Amino acid sequence: METGSIIALLSGPDQPGLVSRVSSWIFLRGGNIKHADQHKDTEANIFFQRVEWLSSDSDPAAEAEAFQRFASDELGMEVQVALSNERPKVALFVSKFDHCFHDTILRFKSGEMFGQLACIISNHTDLLAASQSYGIPFYHVPVTAETKEEAENRQIEIVEKEDVKLIVMARYMQVLSERFLQTVGSPVINIHHSFLPAFAGGRPYHQAHSRGVKLIGATAHYATADLDEGPIIHQDVTRINHRNSVQDLIRKGRDLEKSVFAQAIRLHLENRILVYNNKTVVFD
After folding, report:
1. Which residues are CB-neighbours of 161 under 8 A, at least 6 positions away?
2. 238: CATH
3. What is the pLDDT of residues 3-55, one digit of tens each?
């Protein structure tokens, strides 16, 4: 995405002429469309579109606001608008597993992600030294059954202080409460170490091994109050066979987790995801 482009995500009841009216609005203001894609859910009669254009306006933010009013008031669509040069701040939640932790940080540091890694929040101190070596603020917030509400209040304070717009759970081994998810004010992406909806919950690779499956996978999804039931963003699989041990499955699975997690974060930060009815439309 180039500096100065505007990205809009639209969804709503399908009606004739939507694509034409959107493109005409952009054309009449001197904009140049870089990317446009749409999808219709024929069963629900819902139209989805992602459109990205280069603005000729000296104030792209004002044009983005004007488009949002147009899409909402005149088209009756739900709309999200962003600028390509915005770099939303991201908080990384982690416990002790470090494979997604290191991989995610290095991708941000290389400039691969269109965001800023603002802080790391952990219920353990195992990754404190590593966080310091990366130069990223580290917050230790212990969590027990007795202190969970207090700990989540502290996490919300940190997220607000750091102006975080997205939380990513890099194998953060705590269940976020419904109150936290409703209060925190930002989406939460979780990486689950299995191909959901199969083998949800704990020890999925052990479950897969005992079941004798021939494929294992990883799933990145938005966290919701229903554990492991949130809208799925991205998934991938790898083949296994009878010779693979549980440790083989874990090793292969962790490779999948890193790539699937990274792709989900990238898609979100590039404004390519629309959520509806606990599903996602992902524009590539």
Report:
1. none
2. 3.40.50.170
3. 579 999 999 999 999 999 999 999 999 999 999 999 999 999 999 999 999 99
- The parent domain of residue 215 ranges over 89-282
pLDDT tens figures, 123-175: 999 999 999 999 999 999 999 999 999 999 999 999 999 999 999 999 999 99
Give the contacts of 215 (CB within 8 A, at least 6 positions apart): 195, 237, 238, 239, 240
Q: How many domains does the chain have?
A: 2
Cis before 204 (ω within 30): no
Q: How many residues does the chain have?
A: 284
Give catalytic status of residue 228 as yes or no.
Answer: yes
Q: Angle 246-269/204-211 helices, nearest 10 degrees?
A: 130
Catalytic residue among 14, 37, 41, 228: 228
Q: Is 22 helix (H, G, I), strand (E, B) or coil?
A: helix
Taking the C-alpha atoms of residue 252 and residue 106, their distance in angstroms, rounded to an integer, is: 20
What pLDDT does 52 receive? 97
